Amino acid sequence: MRAAILSAVLAGVIGVVGLATLGTAHARDPLPFERGSWSKLRMAHAEQPTVVHFWGLTCGPCLVELPNWGKLLAERKDLHLVLLAADPLPQQPEQLAATLDRAGLGSAESWAFTDRFYERLRYEIDPAWAGELPRTEMIARDGTVTVLRGVADLAKVRAWLDAQAASHPPAMR
Questions:
Q1: DSSP structural state of residue 171
Q2: DSSP 170
Q3: Which residue blocks in 45-153 are alpha helix, DSSP H?
């Protein structure tokens, strides 16, 4: 009897340790997105074609499409992808990172809304944005923004990347 109880306790401890290890298996937690972060993000990617994809753990279509973004990121080395978790309520960074890892996006730059007044954050990004997710912004070298509302048509993203590459061929060596 004692051996059975000891085995059950040991299995439980191993299970908890295993779960704790799984929770930290991601590359890194998302950066905190707070007031002023949009300006910082835009400055960090200035003159570089960048795709910013807004998603959330509470958005079913977002979770379904994330693996497609993972495949695109693996396929296109010219894709500068920034993922921004824009849930109305802040989510656990570990859960966000684990979700991105499962979708093949653990290496992508990632941010998460951390301000409970998320309307202010949305307004900084786009005063006309009502907060619907998913949403994708493709920001060209010249700062021109193309918005894709809803689940992104990745063929449009590929075409946009091709157009960006054609407008700025690599320098001759």
A1: P
A2: P
A3: 60-75, 93-102, 118-125
20, part of any domain: no
Tokens of 116: 């409970």
Cβ atoms within 10 Å of 100's Cβ, excluding its own: 24
41, part of any domain: yes
Tell me how far apart the alpha carbons of residues 67 and 43 are, in angstroms, rounded to a whole number.
28
Domain carrying residue 84: 29-167
pTM value is 0.81
Residue 105 counted as domain residue: yes
- Amino acid in position 69: W
Q: Which CATH number do you get for residue 36?
A: 3.40.30.10
Number of domains in the chain: 1
Q: What is the CA radius of gyration of the chain?
A: 19
Tell me which of 18-32, 57-71, 142-156 is least confident.
Answer: 18-32
**What totals of helices (H) and strands (E) does the chain contain, helices first?**
6, 6
pLDDT at 5 over 50: no
- Identify the CA nearest to 115 among candidates 124, 106, 127, 107: 124
Write the CA distances from 92 to 16, 87, 95, 163, integer angstroms.
18, 11, 5, 37
